[in-house]
């Protein structure tokens, strides 16, 4: 029971920690809109710039992610992003080095020239390190090429990326998202995918509410199960405990001392077992969650020795206290009515 | 000095009194309480020992109330009719537990254990479990356990029932030795007339029987 409760609560905690990390790395004021533009949309003449007006709400990075990969001379594939004159403003930190074609990578050292093939097009790109604010977009090596060199590839369709870092004074993210959704619904063109910390925050709030209610239920179930197990044992041992208690009382041992001894003994056993289980789980955390195919975070200690553990230990202790009731009933009986 | 003043006791509210307005003073020495089965002898012994709480009246034992745990721990020895030796502990451990709970220091504890086991003829049985001993040996072991803390008051419930003359004689000699300092009080509930010769006082409990309702009570309660 303890083992299962701890694993469930740690699982929840891990998910919450992951979302919190995502929120803090994404930033509460950032918004990513990805609009899928199909060849049909292109031939229908749909504007791919319709959300550029987001610029008035903050710093806007725009680019087109092609539905193609570039094969590099270093043996690695890179995602392909095309940029037009309208997108240059967001790319200035990279264009200032004087190379219109460049690859942003965390793994390749800066300043290395790499040849890439995209279909029939060959380009040479210089490697640069992405700025921290672009890390949300640049998760693999990404090749940036002026759009005019990708005319054939662009016709196959692409994803239009709008990455907004909102000004603090602009309307809040929820309002901007709702405006984007309204525009998208109104013209019926394109498919948009919106990612913002606000949505993650909502998910986090929901998860935290679920975790609170689960904590309560697990505590109730665990406490009840332990009360039941210890209670049944106390009842089964009732006559024996009553006899031993009476005998010790006849030697002058006080009822309070006997009651405390019984409680302390049970508390010692339950707490030692619970802490032992938690320690073992934390020791084999990686193995257990790898077997469950769940990614684990680095700070295992705080996962296992956090508030959830205190809840579990408290529930176990309350269970023990409830199960001690039969012992106290036995202690209330007069010695002379038990020993002949 | 042990005094009982106006003691009333009954096992349940609707039952008649088993002890009704009982008053008596027990001076140091050996006192026998005799009477019919069910007349309340064992009940009186348990009330004196503080193992049953009287509904009315007072028991005073050298300034202590009988249910005082300090008094019970140090100055009261009780031998139950059913002996109540711990079945999974050797005789030595049974004695050691009682002595340890009485707060007797380790060294004196072993000396007392050896002394009383020898006096009661059990020296060679100290490592034996109670169930591997005869009824008479268990009875003597139970008395040794009560004597081990050398209490001021010793209460014995039918200590010689079913014992042969030889075993009874051993117990009589130990009790004589026990009270020899003139400071200790021994109260024995018994039917056994072999103990009469050692008694300083014999209390005929039949005379305390309440007239009405007691026969019905005898049918429903022990001792």
Largest interface: A-B, 13 and 25 residues
Task: Strand order, main sheet of chain A: write it out.
Answer: 2-3-7-4-6-5
Described by the principal axes of the CA atoms, the overall outline of chain A is: elongated
Gyration radius of chain B, rounded: 17 Å
**Count of beta strands of chain B:** 9
Largest sheet of chain A: 6 strands, mixed, barrel
Beta-sheet strand percentage of chain B?
15-25%
Number of strands of chain A: 9
What is the number of helical segments of chain B per DSSP (H or I, 4+ residues)? Answer: 7
What portion of the residues of chain A fall into strands of 2 or more residues?
15-25%
Output the radius of gyration of chain A.
32 Å
Q: What structural category arises from helix and sheet content of chain B? A: alpha/beta
| Proportion of helical residues of chain B | 25-40%
Q: Which blocks of ≥5 consecutive residues of chain A have pLDDT under 50?
A: none
Overview of this protein structure:
The complex is a heterodimer of chains A (340) and B (223). Chain A is α+β, with helices and mostly antiparallel strands and 340 residues long. In chain A, a hairpin with a 2-residue loop joins strand 5 (113-118) and strand 6 (121-128). Chain A has two domains: 2-20 and 206-339, no CATH class; 30-167, no CATH class. Chain A contains 13 helices and nine strands. By secondary structure, chain B is of the alpha/beta class. Chain B contains seven helices and nine strands; from the N terminus they run βββαββαβαααβαββα. In chain B, helix 3 (91-101) packs across helix 4 and helix 3 runs parallel beside helix 5. Residues 211-215 of chain B have low confidence and may be disordered. The interface between A and B is medium-sized, with 13 and 25 residues.
């Amino acid at each position: 029971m303890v083992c299962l409760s701890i694993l469930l609560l740690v699982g929840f905690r891990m998910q919450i920690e992951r979302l919190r990390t995502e929120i803090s790395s994404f930033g509460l004021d950032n918004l990513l809109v990805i609009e899928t533009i199909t060849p049909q949309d292109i031939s229908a003449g749909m504007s791919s710039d319709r959300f550029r007006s987001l610029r008035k709400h903050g710093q806007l990075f725009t680019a087109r992610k092609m539905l193609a990969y570039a094969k590099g001379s270093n043996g690695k594939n890179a995602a392909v992003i095309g940029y037009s004159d309208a997108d240059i403003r967001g790319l200035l930190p990279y264009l200032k080095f004087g190379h219109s074609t460049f690859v942003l990578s965390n793994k390749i050292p800066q300043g290395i020239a790499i040849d890439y093939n995209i279909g029939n097009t060959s380009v040479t790109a210089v490697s640069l390190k992405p700025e921290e604010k672009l890390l949300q977009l640049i998760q693999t090596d990404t090749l940036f090429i002026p759009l005019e060199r990708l005319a054939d590839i662009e016709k196959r369709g692409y994803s239009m990326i709008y990455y907004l870092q909102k000004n603090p004074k602009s309307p809040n993210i929820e309002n901007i998202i709702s405006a984007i959704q309204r525009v998208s619904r109104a013209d019926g063109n394109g498919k948009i995918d919106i990612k913002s910390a606000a949505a993650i925050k909502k998910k986090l709030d929901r998860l935290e509410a679920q975790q609170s209610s689960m904590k309560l239920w697990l505590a109730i179930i665990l406490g009840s199960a332990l009360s039941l197990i210890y209670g049944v044992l106390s009842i089964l041992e009732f006559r024996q405990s009553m006899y031993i208690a009476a005998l010790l009382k006849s030697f002058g041992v006080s009822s309070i001392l006997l009651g405390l001894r019984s409680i302390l003994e049970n508390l010692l056993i339950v707490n030692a077992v619970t802490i032992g289980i938690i320690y073992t789980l934390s020791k084999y955390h990686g193995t257990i969650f790898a077997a469950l195919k769940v990614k684990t975070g680095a700070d295992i200690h705080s996962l296992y020795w956090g508030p959830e553990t205190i809840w579990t230990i408290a529930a176990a202790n309350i269970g023990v206290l409830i199960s001690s009731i039969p012992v106290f009933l036995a202690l209330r009986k007069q010695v002379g009515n038990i020993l002949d | 000095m042990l005094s009982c003043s106006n003691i009333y006791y009954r096992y349940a509210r609707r039952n008649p009194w088993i002890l009704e307005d009982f008053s008596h003073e027990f001076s140091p020495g050996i006192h026998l309480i005799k009477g019919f089965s069910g007349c309340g002898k064992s009940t009186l012994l348990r009330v004196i020992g503080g193992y049953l709480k009287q509904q009315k009246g007072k028991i005073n034992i050298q300034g202590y109330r009988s249910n005082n745990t300090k008094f019970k721990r140090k100055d009261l020895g009780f031998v139950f009719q059913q002996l109540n030796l711990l079945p999974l502990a050797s005789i030595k451990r049974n004695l050691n537990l009682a002595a340890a709970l009485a707060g007797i220091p380790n060294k004196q504890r072993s000396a007392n254990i050896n002394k009383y086991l020898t006096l009661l003829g059990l020296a060679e049985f100290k490592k034996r479990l109670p169930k591997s001993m005869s009824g008479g040996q268990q009875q003597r072991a139970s008395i040794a356990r009560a004597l081990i803390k050398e209490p001021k008051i010793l209460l014995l419930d039918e200590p010689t029932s079913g014992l042969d003359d030889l075993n009874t004689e051993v117990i009589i000699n130990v009790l004589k030795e026990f009270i020899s300092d003139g400071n200790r009080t021994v109260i024995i509930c018994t039917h056994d007339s072999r103990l009469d010769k050692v008694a300083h006082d014999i209390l005929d409990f039949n005379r305390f029987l309440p007239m009405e309702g007691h026969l019905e009570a005898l049918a429903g309660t022990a001792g």
